[in-house]
Design goal:
single chain; 284 residues; mainly alpha; Arc Repressor Mutant, subunit A; 12 helices; 3 strands; 54% helix; 4% strand
Length: 284
């Protein structure tokens, strides 16, 4: 068997003849394997090694055969196949083929068409005596409308109300942050304060991001100003109404700026920010 497999591997043949030889080798190996018991395999370990070599070589060859198979190849022409069937049915007779002559192929068809094994269903077989009946459909009662009845008043969409509530909530948060900024700048003699000392929330990274988002509205409305010092650290300060009026009178336009911060940068801050301190004081 090993010799046959070696010859197939050396020649590189992947045709039907090589596949037929491989089938014979595998069949012979299965027959020998069924004849041997476990005790005999232990005594003859060299034969077990040969079996493993046969299985390994057969598997590699079979893989090559599968790779060379073209599933789109047709093995016969339909017209030629139909002509062969007619010749087989007609035989030596010269009469025309009748529709009932096709029954001559029943015996051959039974051997060609595979038969599926019977299955046992968990829920048992269906009882034809207890067929479920369709439920009667209830007819809807049509109630006539009263002509003099007033049409119902249309309600304002809830979505618009929710948007208005959200805008009011944002305005309240922005006003709170502006008050905290004005207070801290006043305590610092009107000088700018550090942006991160104002915005950081050491208890929550999400709250820190929210503070950055809402602070952008202060920049947009001209209520706050942000700049960098010589070290590249952001500084913020509150803007007076007079300064804002002069800035816009000269054609100045405020842009909404949203900064960013990573989780690692946020962990470096250990002291609570001014907004966080204000919220904690209100809770107490």
């Amino acid at each position: 068997m090993i010799g046959i497999l070696t010859i197939i591997e050396k020649t590189g043949d992947t045709g039907l003849s090589a596949a037929s030889k491989l089938q014979d080798v595998v069949h012979e190996a299965n027959v020998l394997d069924n004849e041997c018991k476990i005790d005999e395999r232990i005594e003859h370990s060299d034969e077990t090694l040969l079996d493993c070599m046969v299985i390994s070589s057969s598997s590699s060859l079979l893989k090559k055969f599968v790779e060379h198979v073209d599933v789109f190849t047709t093995n016969y022409e339909q017209t030629e196949f139909a002509a062969n069937i007619q010749t087989f049915i007609k035989g030596e007779n010269s009469y025309e083929i009748q529709e009932t002559d096709i029954l001559m192929l029943i015996d051959d068809a039974r051997t060609i068409i595979p038969q599926f094994p019977a299955f046992n269903y968990v829920y048992g077989s269906y009882s034809m005596e207890q067929i479920p009946q369709p439920k009667p459909r209830k007819q809807r009662e049509i109630i006539p409308r009263e002509r003099n009845k007033q049409a119902p008043q249309k309600k304002q969409p809830e979505k618009i109300q929710n948007v208005e509530k959200e805008e009011e909530g944002i305005q309240e948060i922005v006003k709170l942050m502006n008050d905290v900024l004005n207070t801290k700048c006043s305590q610092n003699n009107g000088k700018p304060i550090k942006y991160y000392d104002y915005i950081i929330d050491t208890d929550s990274f999400a709250n820190t991001l929210e503070n950055m988002f809402y602070f952008a509205f202060l920049i947009r409305d001209g209520l706050a100003h942000i700049d960098l010092n010589s070290k590249g650290e952001p500084l913020i300060k509150s803007m007076k109404n007079q300064t804002l009026t002069e800035f816009r009178a000269t054609g100045g336009v405020n842009a909404q700026i949203i900064s960013n911060i990573t989780m690692e940068q946020w962990r470096r801050f250990k002291r609570p920010g001014y907004i966080q301190q204000y919220k904690q004081a209100c809770v107490q």
